[in-house]
Fold this sequence. Notes:
Blueprint: E1 4-8, H1 12-22, E2 27-31, H2 34-44, E3 48-52, H3 63-75, E4 80-85, H4 90-98, E5 103-106, H5 111-137, E6 143-144, E7 147-148, H6 152-165, E8 171-174, H7 181-190, E9 199-203, H8 209-217, H9 234-237, E10 242-246, H10 253-265, E11 267-268, E12 277-278, E13 282-287, H11 291-297, H12 302-308, E14 311-314, H13 322-339, E15 346-347, H14 349-357, H15 363-377, E16 382-383, H16 397-421, H17 426-433, H18 437-447
Parallel strand pairs: 1-2, 1-3, 3-4, 4-5, 8-13, 8-14, 9-10, 10-13, 15-16
Antiparallel strand pairs: 6-7, 11-12
Helix pairs in contact: 2-3, 5-13, 6-7, 10-12, 13-15, 16-17, 16-18
Amino acid sequence: MNPNLLIVDDDDEIRTQMKWALAGDYRVTLAGDRPSALEAFRTVRPPVVLLDLGLPPHPGNPTEGLATLADLLALDRATKVIIISGQGERENALQAIGSGAYDFLCKPVELEEVRLILKRCFYVANLEQECRKMQHVLSAEESFEGMLGGSAIMRLLFESIRKVAATDAPVLILGESGTGKEMAANAIHARSSRKEGPFVAINCSAIPENLLESELFGHEKGAFTGAHVQRKGRIEMANGGTLFLDEIGEVPLPLQVKLLRFLQERTIERVGGRQSITTDSRVVAATNADLTKGMAAGTFREDLFYRLAVVKLKLPPLRERETDIRLLALAFLHRFALQFGKTGLAFDQEALRAIDAYGWPGNVRELENRVKRAAIMGEAKRLTAGDLELSTASEGSAALLGLKEAREALERRMIENALRKYGGKMTPVATELGVSRPTLYELIEKLGIDREKISPN
């Protein structure tokens, strides 16, 4: 059976043409605006969505398209959303990538390019699904709602999550950056009576202060310049489910007052509104900051802290999970080997010793990124400490710096050769190198490659 594909575009002719061109490979569902797109998404649950940024009521403004992207990812973070934008809207497309979109296409789109990107998206979506299945196959002692860990400290954490998930009490998750606070919040939701409801996450530090109130509480039409339609906030969207407030310490004081009122009364008012709206969502917050210092400095309300911290969970840094580090590294390597079609990848003994010896200041996120980079750039079946950009016990920082420079030179040479081979066309270059187009753009910018100066072969 062909997989589901949702196409969201306000142009009826474009929708029809795309459906006609792709119906042989996919079960295509069409939508012309945000409400119909969300309704269709809830019905067919497609793993991949083609989304035009220019949606009604103001097709010339990307706001509605970006809002649709946020709503789709709020419903399912695993969805691969491909943005379609005009030639002059590259900045908007990159903003969408930063908000969680998987890739973007520039109008007018070329059918073969669409087919190629869709094929890769569905392939990655299937791989991720297989990885999730693999995690569930792991023993109960080492896997818990997608979180891996067999160490004593992680078993205690899993038991705490089981206990707190059975209640509706607010939870405050503490831990360094990269320790998996959102995964812990997801685990609480998945184990709760609200698991059939939505899990809505918002990073309070990633949204400008002047927009955060609207993101949380929603706004009425005409509430401020650019508010062309009424919009629900994340709190309303989480009704019946769980609201995850990441980096809660970054919320400004005026908004802390409104959050406190919501926690006390379970009612909100949209920006520009006067109607009191009742909403029922379980609140889980997280921070890597010391909120007690914030309270002492007057930047965080004490009454809000005690409302949020009915139960506190502390996630350990990776350096305190010594028996888990290799388990996580091997699990990540297995996932990325499947994703990039590099079967048989393994770490050599030097790499394993370097993994054990390193302090992992970036925690699980750093480990995942290093393994992913090694899986992409490594040229042999057995990955070394050099592939991970880690020094061995006998290597000094100067040797590591030289290795980093050598690796960047190799990356630059491979990208430049591929650009010459394909005449600067980014899609086939990304395919040959085994990376997504956004990743390729980032590498080109990081390495200072001037595409205009590269002549095709």
